[in-house]
Amino acid sequence: MLSPPMNGDEDWLTVGKLVAAQGMQGELRINPSSDFPERFTLPGQRWLKERNGEPRPIELLTGRQLPGRSLYVVKFAGVNNRNAAEALVGQKLLVPSSDRPSLAEGEFHLLDLVGLEARLQAEGPAIGHVIDLTTAGNDLLEIELLTGRRVLVPFVEAIVPEVQLNQGWLRLTPPPGLLEL
Question: What is the structure's pLDDT at 2?
């Protein structure tokens, strides 16, 4: 069953990127940008989006995580060989923004952190903004400093002890040298 078409990026959550074909039967590897494995393992409708294209529906048939890796391998309906899988590499995997799992207190949807000001003190000035996130074993925030340099900051409580989504900022307590690298 198709959901009504949505317009605009604010109506979608990017939950992963198709990064490679896997084998000869049309499976694909996904680099996730979601902490919810069911987005890649539970069958059901998802959407794919090319760089400047519109999201289009696709049916997820199966999915599994690669042992010891953060990558998932998925199988979509109608993608039955390596050539068909390779044609999808580079596209983003989307779900409607209304499809957000509930969170416990102190948990965040990582995508909500993009755009937040980064500060060293709660009442202090911004030192930069969160521009992206990377999942590489641990979640890393990519912060563009006011100087124009970009730094990767581990999203762990010891380094990011305070997040104020409603106020649009997060506080950093970086170890010496982290922002100077």
Answer: 34
